[in-house]
Design goal:
Length: 603
């Protein structure tokens, strides 16, 4: 069993109540000096609970009770090295069933003591009913004052002012003729369709206090009205909400505004993100405006301190969005808005968070040539070729005998355990001086590539956008069934399996919603008839990934490699294919099917 650090190395910054207990002092170091703190291995749960020191013993007892409640049939944890993992991102330490492997864990924060100078706490015991709006305003002003352009426009997107904004003080639509600070919002509509704003109605919306009148109340969803309040509460005057600010009654102007949406989110002083609920939901916890939020926090004593078990984690890890239950994280549009927003005010699980800038590898290989054009009937000579420029240059970037492009450096590859890497990239990792991950760390890349110098003055460029794609590919009709529950990565995943004519499971589809998934029958061998789906191949994939441990919701060794085809489930209308869902199939199984060539027109 590994032991905690010796008391002599921790005594200079640990509280008096922790003296005499190496484990308590080591836990304290994980909060006060995470860079130098080690993980803490307490051995089996019997060894961990045998301690004579009651302060951290209470933590262990609570955690073991939690594991017992999650796994009532488990007899022991003898194989586990229960302990505390130091922070690796953010400021949470993890009480873990296994510090070296997978298992249940609690992410915990130390409650900040404002009356203690240089106290290392970074958590707060929250009001169960009401959001602290004053704190949100403080976050915004502090970020603007201390981070400045680092958080204001790290992507260096050209300055943009929306054509229209909502003036939250005058409660009406106002033209965006001059550059002003504004707040953007990001949310889902849900099953609700916002009312159409006609040209006549839009003129009425420009009258002062129009949004406060019964005549226009239907145009302002509850979530927009609550975000208008929040915008004013953080000392901002203007809000951009697509439902009110995109002039759909003028298609030409609306098209131009929609093309600028990415720049609108980048240039916003902050973006309010509602991951809970949808457009018809209220934002709970705004005192005097909405209902109490009914928040629950688990607070555990730790000597003279208190620890909070986090209700939310990994909010800014886009790769983990599929693990989140809210519909917000499952939609391409909102994920793009999230990625482009710089300063984020996030409502998640009844809590409010501020985020600003500060488990697998795969490569795709083209199997056809793609073209695009304005009309589905355009002849070949009028179609514009879509070049796979990254694929064409990728192998050259992997030639590590060539000089590296400016700004790159080679870093040692960790040898602690097997790692994931694309073909040809096993020996090195690379860092670029201008590409940072959250929390200020340099991001690591498998090969160096030229990085353009982009400034705010750099003129934007976008190829002409045309609505139809064309290619020569192959198609097959497969049988679709609901995915077996034990093969779902998460219980709430909308997924179906693809079977050949013999009922063999050869792939899967990622279904966009429950309504599209439900028509699939459940049992391949049952009396229910399969749901036939038309599948077309898009590209080939080579994937390297860790094994998913569904019981503990973690990836683990061993690493395995797969050859796959990326697919689209399409439905045909007047000779044009429309995407329903995407998926993948085992390459060898796909190639053994009775495939049919098709001249695909994708609308």
């Amino acid at each position: 069993m590994a032991t905690p650090p010796r008391p002599s190395t921790l005594a200079d910054n640990s509280p008096q109540w922790a003296s005499g207990c190496p484990t308590c002092m080591a836990i304290w170091l994980q909060f006060s000096g995470p860079e130098s703190a080690p993980d803490i291995n307490l051995g089996s749960y019997e060894e961990a609970l045998s301690t004579a020191f009651p302060r951290h013993k209470e933590l262990i007892q609570e955690f073991v009770h939690y594991i017992r409640s999650e796994e009532p049939n488990s007899q022991s944890f003898d194989s586990s090295d229960l302990g505390f993992r130091k922070p690796r991102q953010g400021f949470s330490i993890s009480i873990s069933q296994s510090v070296s492997g997978s298992g249940h864990l609690w992410n915990s924060l130390l409650v900040k003591k404002d009356d203690v100078p240089e106290h290392p706490g970074n958590g707060r015991v929250l009001d169960t009913d009401w959001v602290d709006i004053g704190l949100v305003k403080k976050w915004k002003h502090r970020c603007i004052s201390f981070h400045g352009v680092k958080c204001g426009n790290p992507l260096k997107v050209w300055p943009t002012c929306p054509a229209w904004l909502v003036g939250v003080q005058k409660q009406c639509a106002v033209p965006g003729h001059e550059p002003v600070d504004y707040v953007a919002i990001s949310y889902t509509y849900g099953s609700h369709t916002p009312p159409v704003v006609t040209s006549t109605a839009f003129k009425g919306l420009q009258k002062p206090f129009a949004l406060a009148t019964p005549e226009f109340s239907d145009f302002v969803s509850p979530i927009i009205r609550h975000f208008m309040y929040l915008t004013s509460a953080i000392d901002e005057r203007y809000l951009w909400a697509d439902a009110l600010c995109v002039t759909h009654h003028d298609p030409k102007a609306a098209s131009e505004q929609l093309r600028s949406m990415g720049a609108i989110y980048v240039n916003a002083v902050a973006t309010i993100i509602a991951t809970d609920g949808d457009s018809r939901s209220e934002v709970p916890g705004l005192k005097g405006i909405s209902n109490p939020r009914g928040l629950s926090q688990n607070v555990i004593p730790f000597g003279d301190e208190r620890l909070i078990l986090r209700n939310t984690s990994f909010l800014d890890e886009i790769i983990l969005f599929p693990t989140q239950r809210q519909h917000y994280y499952q939609r391409g549009r909102t994920i793009q808005e999230y990625a482009l927003a710089n300063r984020k005010i996030i409502f998640n699980n009844l809590e409010i968070h501020w985020i600003s800038e500060k488990e697998y590898v795969e490569e795709a290989f083209p199997i056809t040539e793609w073209y695009t054009s304005r009309l589905p009937t355009d002849p070949q000579e009028q179609r514009r070729k879509v070049r796979p420029s990254w694929f064409e240059k990728r192998e050259g970037y992997k030639d590590f005998t060539k000089p590296m492009p400016p700004g790159w450096k080679r870093v040692p590859v960790p040898e602690s355990e097997p790692r994931l890497y694309p073909d040809g990239c096993s020996r090195y990792l690379f860092e670029h001086e201008s590409m940072l991950e959250p929390y200020g760390r340099l991001s690591e890349w498998y090969c160096p590539f030229p990085v353009s110098e982009i400034q705010e003055s750099t003129a934007p460029f976008m190829p002409e956008q045309t609505p139809y794609l064309f290619c020569e590919t192959v198609q097959a009709r497969l049988s679709g069934y609901q995915q077996d529950s034990d093969k779902l990565q998460y219980p709430w995943d909308n997924e179906s399996k693809l079977c050949d004519r013999l009922g063999k499971d050869i792939g899967k589809l990622h279904i966009p919603n429950k309504e599209t998934r439900d028509p699939f029958p459940e049992n391949v061998n049952g009396a229910e008839i399969d749901l036939p789906v038309d599948i077309v191949a898009v590209c080939r994939l080579k994937r390297c990934s860790k094994t998913w441990d569904r019981e503990h919701w973690e990836t683990r060794l061993p690493i395995f490699k797969e050859d796959l085809y990326l697919l689209l489930w399409v439905e045909w209308k007047d000779g044009i294919a429309y995407r329903v869902a995407s998926g993948e199939v085992i390459a060898a199984e796909w190639e053994n099917l009775d495939l049919e060539k098709v001249s695909l027109v994708l609308g």
